[in-house]
Amino acid sequence: MTAQRTLMKKWIPSLLAAAGMLITLIVLASNGTAMNSIQRLLALISSAILNVLGQNTEVIGTTVQSSVFGISVVTACTGIFITGLFLIAVAALPTRWMAKLIGAGIGIGGIFLVNIVRLVSLYFIGVHWPSFLEQAHQLIWQSLLIVVAVSLWLLWAGRWAYVPRSN
């Protein structure tokens, strides 16, 4: 087998999987019902955590609110785009499918958990430091989510994603 065929045999399935992930992300993000369900789930979990932490919050639609402050969970707040990019990066690497499934689990779970921490912290920032909310939301947490996603990908790629060398 020529080097070109070997290279194509390794990369074509992975690139097709990455393209499939991209299409899935586009379809999911444009599906209002699916996105609303994800937004509501995040709002419910965030509200439950806030209530455990002594806040008296309730969820109305996709908004977590109390008598003091409220946050709305919109599509951009779901982590769907950063998770989608993570999954595309996992799918694009030519490695075993089981390794890709492990990577997907690490990314989806890790980014989801960090996003919950993000939403809860933004609520507290909005209550106690409202003038800092916009910077925390747009600058700090966006950057942290990117760092977390890249770190999780590097962890996965270094630990589980064995890529055999071509001869």
- β-strand percent reads 5-15%
Strand order of the largest sheet: 1-2-3
Number of strands: 3
Mean pLDDT: 88
* Cα shape: elongated
Number of H/I helices? 5
Helix content: over 70%
H/E element sequence: HHEEEHHH
State the major sheet: 3 strands, antiparallel
Indicate how many domains the architecture comprises. Answer: 1
Span between termini: 10 Å
Rg computed from alpha carbons, rounded to a whole number of angstroms: 19 Å
Parts with pLDDT < 50 across at least 5 consecutive residues: none
What class would the helix/strand composition place it in?
Answer: mainly alpha
Can you characterise this structure?
The protein has 167 residues and is mainly alpha-helical. It has one domain. It contains five helices and three strands. It has helices at residues 3-30, 32-52, 80-92, 97-128, 133-159, and strands at 58-60, 63-65, 70-72. Strands 1-2-3 form a three-stranded antiparallel sheet, covered by helices on one side. A hairpin with a 2-residue loop joins β1 (58-60) and β2 (63-65). α2 (32-52) packs across α4. The longest helix has 32 residues, at 97-128.
Itemize the secondary structure elements and their pairings.
Elements: H1 3-30, H2 32-52, E1 58-60, E2 63-65, E3 70-72, H3 80-92, H4 97-128, H5 133-159
Antiparallel strand pairs: 1-2, 2-3
